[in-house]
Amino acid sequence: MNIDTERLSLLQSLTAKHRGVFSTYDLANLFLTSSPLSFNRRLKPFLSSGILRRFCRGFYVAKDFDLEWLSQRLGPQSALSLGTVLAKHRLIGNIPQKTVYAVKIGKTRLYESSFGTVVHLGYASRMVGRNLWFGYDVWDGAVRLADPEKAFLDTLYFYQLGHKFSFNVYSDIATEKLNKKQLKTYLGRYRNPKFKAFVKGVLDGQRSIG
């Protein structure tokens, strides 16, 4: 099946703008069709040739795509955090390759393919989530991410709920690089005294190790 060269040229011109990430809606507009049958027929040559690859339901990616941008599109209200942000600020070593961690309000979701993994850890309680939704800023045009102090607190929050990370929260985080004044202000917004004690215990434990 031959590729529509006009559609290919248009796709290539849009790849940078979309950071290599296309939703079904994006491609339906590109292919000028609203018919599922016609859409699948026009998409098939792009998949067969490897120009596009299916990442998960509703999203396709080009060869060189931005996994962090894909994370944002999968969860428009999510924010990069946890190990992804800690690694960006060199507070931990590298996280697993082609893996992005984010937080959101709602159910935890895992999006996994051979091209990468997106983990969205969710504040299951909307009330708790709204109370703790701070410390996130828009970066690089549209991607939302936590600052280092909030990423640290997010990590300990979800660790206490049972989530396992690829690094040791007690010894692998360079907490001495955190803004202690900011951290204290943020921690004051958490209502759970057990969590506050846990955070302080991690910080005190690291100071004693150092």
Descriptive account of the structure:
The chain has 210 residues and is of the alpha+beta class. Helix content is 43%, strand content 19%. The protein contains nine helices and nine strands. It has helices spanning 5-15, 24-30, 36-48, 67-74, 82-88, 126-131, 148-160, 180-187, 193-209, and strands at residues 21-23, 53-56, 59-61, 79-80, 99-105, 109-113, 116-123, 136-139, 143-146. The strands form three sheets. A four-stranded mixed sheet has the order 4-5-7-6, sandwiched between helices. Strand 6 and strand 7 (116-123) form a beta hairpin. The longest helix is centred in the last third of the chain and has 17 residues, at 193-209. The termini are far apart.
Name its key features.
210 residues; alpha+beta; 3-stranded antiparallel β-sheet
Compact summary:
The protein is α+β, with helices and mostly antiparallel strands and 210 residues long.
Write the layout of secondary structure elements.
Layout: H1 5-15, E1 21-23, H2 24-30, H3 36-48, E2 53-56, E3 59-61, H4 67-74, E4 79-80, H5 82-88, E5 99-105, E6 109-113, E7 116-123, H6 126-131, E8 136-139, E9 143-146, H7 148-160, H8 180-187, H9 193-209
Number of separate helices = 9
Reading side by side through the largest sheet, how are the strands ordered?
4-5-7-6
Rg = 20 Å
Helix- and strand-based class? alpha+beta
Strand content: 15-25%
Unreliable stretches (pLDDT < 50, length at least 5) are none
* Secondary-structure element order, N to C: HEHHEEHEHEEEHEEHHH
Q: How many strands, which pairing sense, and closed or not: the largest β-sheet?
A: 4 strands, mixed
Quick check: average pLDDT?
92
